[in-house]
Specification:
Distance between the termini: 96 Å
Strand order of the largest sheet: 7-8-6-11-12-13
Radius of gyration: 29 Å
Largest sheet: 6 strands, mixed
Strand content: 25-35%
Order of helices and strands: HEEHHHEEEHHEHHEEHEEEHEE
Oligomer: single chain
Structural class: alpha+beta
């Protein structure tokens, strides 16, 4: 039986419309075979990626891979495509010239008559500008502008996560409240710009003294907070605190002058001294002030907060200066 003329015209028109949409879409479109081989791409794809259609036809989309997404990312993506028929999200890929770009990506599996994937359609738009702007806003919200260290907001989030993990293990978490002794005098005598550079330098020195798993945040002014997870014994804690104290008193040259400060450090331990971020910060802060009162001749002091088992009242145990 022949196809009625009207139906044939409609099919022809639909095909022309589909081709027109494919060619003129501002979003990149890539069609692949079930094995991943690229069958066709549109002009927007070539504009965004820098590849011509001849350069990518028959290749695997891995030629665009940025390396920023891990295996778990792609496993989750394909699990969604297999179970739901599509995936939507943001990813980073690489152009022909090597530069990275962020894309808002949709991948759809198109089934054949047997219900199995006949081909896949990937559609993406370049959203690098918006993604970078979002990252800058996130950095401003979570990081201190002067030192580049986490601020109070990010400190609170990381501390919450660490305490949640610590509740399920036998390891403790130590929180060290660090106050720089003598900073105010330097700031007043040399001016705020010099003081800012000094704070930034000391912040980096303190960060370098810690482990990769530790968090150092600027709490405000000349105060820093270090969160030390996986505290399995007192010797490890004492070693880390000594390194922090040494880093704080290391000479730093500002405007041709060698500046030497010291630090008063108060420490609170999870779960002994508290089970919430607020409790630990409060007790470490109190211990820091006890250490500051004990400071003599600029020597750094470290005080560990503790609660009396009988009365519940707090007392402080001084650690000898390193």
């Amino acid at each position: 039986m022949s196809t009625p003329p009207t139906q044939a015209v409609c099919a022809s028109t639909a095909g022309e419309l589909a081709a027109s949409v494919f060619d003129h879409s501002r979003d990149a479109i890539m069609i692949t075979a079930p094995d991943g081989a690229i069958l066709a791409v549109n002009r927007a794809f070539c504009t965004i990626t820098g590849y011509t259609e001849d350069e990518v036809r028959g290749k695997n989309p891995r030629i665009l891979k940025s390396g920023l997404q891990d295996r778990a990312f792609y496993a989750s993506m394909w699990q969604a495509i297999t179970s739901k028929g599509y995936w939507q999200g943001e990813a980073w890929n690489r152009r022909k010239d090597g530069t990275l770009f962020a894309e808002r990506l949709t991948i759809v599996g198109v089934p054949g008559a047997d219900g199995k994937p006949h081909h896949y359609i990937a559609m993406f738009a370049d959203v690098t500008g918006a993604s970078m702007q979002r990252r800058r806003l996130e950095e401003r919200a979570n990081y201190d502008a002067l030192t580049g260290l986490p601020n109070r907001v990010l400190l609170g989030e990381r501390l919450e996560q660490l305490l949640a993990c610590a509740r399920d293990t036998s390891f403790g978490v130590a929180l060290a409240f660090i106050d720089l002794d003598g900073f105010k005098q330097v700031n007043d005598s040399m001016g705020h710009p010099a003081g800012d550079r000094l704070l930034a330098s000391i912040g980096q020195s303190l960060r370098a003294a810690l482990r990769g798993s530790d968090t150092l945040a600027r709490f405000g002014g000349d105060e820093f907070v270090a969160v030390l997870p996986d505290m399995c014994d007192d010797a490890l804690l004492a070693s880390l605190l000594a390194r922090v104290a040494d880093a704080a008193r290391a000479p730093i040259v500002i405007d041709g002058r060698a500046i030497c400060l010291s630090a008063s450090i108060g420490v609170a331990l999870f779960p002994r001294d508290g089970t919430t971020p607020a409790q630990l910060i409060s007790h470490a802060d109190a211990a820091m002030y006890a250490a500051k009162r004990a400071t003599r001749g600029g020597a750094p002091h470290i005080t560990i907060s503790a609660a009396s088992p009988a009365s519940g009242q707090r007392h402080h145990h001084e650690v000898p200066p390193p």
